[in-house]
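Continuing the batch. This is chain 6 of the set; chains 1 through 5 are on the previous pages. Same settings as before, nothing changed between runs. Recording input and output for traceability.
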Amino acid sequence: MSNKPLLSLIIAVYNGEKFLATFFTSIEQQSLSNYELIVVNDGSTDVSAKIIATWQSKFDAMQVINQSNQGVSVARNSGMAAATGKYIVFPDIDDKIYPGIYLTLLDMAEKGALDVATCNGRYVYQHGKARHSIFPLERLYSTPVLLGPVWLKQALDPRKFLHVTCLNIYCHDFLTAHNFIFEPGLRHQDNLWTTGIFLTSACVQYTDQIFYDHYIHSESVSHEPDTDETLMCSARPYMKIIYMLDQINRRHIEQTRSIRACRWQIAKEGPGIIHTFDNMQEHHYKHLIIKEFFDKGSWNLIWRYAQDLRLRWCLSRRYLRLRKALIH
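Output for chain 6:
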């Protein structure tokens, strides 16, 4: 009989002292019996390491990996390399995880021999305001077992779906067979990760039960105050993400041909990236990043995928301003 745990929870931690106690308590409340908890301390400079050590004695199957700060993607990859569970999940420590999420998803995954089991959640903004479901409740309902591309089309077609990596549990063998890892140094890559996952997977199932609150707030572990430097650090990953999404579309051309939203989700990043440029104060930084935007082909890629006339009109107006910024 195999001693392999059913679920590996991979937890990336960087300066998470304000969230860890609540997070670990939420894991205790899951009533899991066959799991492992892999905590990757990604070079925290606060007292996270001490808090993790305190909680380690309360979990029978908790492994701690300490590494220099390399970002959440590398931390998750380190956790995956150490994981032995049949399924893998990547919860964020600053979110709220409701009891029953993993027992429900594991039951779905086992019964359906799934590559991915997924659920609904909510976005919760500053001070608990403006809660809304990640999947629109009036458009997306619980599904039977589906092909991954079929589910992705259903999820993207309302154009309100936002990719959230931590809503899903993943079959470990599926991730390994297709060499899925998180791109090192690339922030906010949920749309890249889940698009590739669902286009590749053969068996996916969704429950519309809300089990997860994803918080957007000033103390989020992924939030930084805006400066010209941080705005550049925000724009560059999105420029890389749209390039990588284009590569995914090309790699799965037969599937994406019928999923118009796979093209839309590239084009829609255009105004957001350009808005980042607008918020820069120093002309030197603005000129540099706009030049990169054109030289690396990001503009051409966004324009090619922008089939919506309204979006093309919006981009056309911004194009003239971008070119003017390069001249002056």
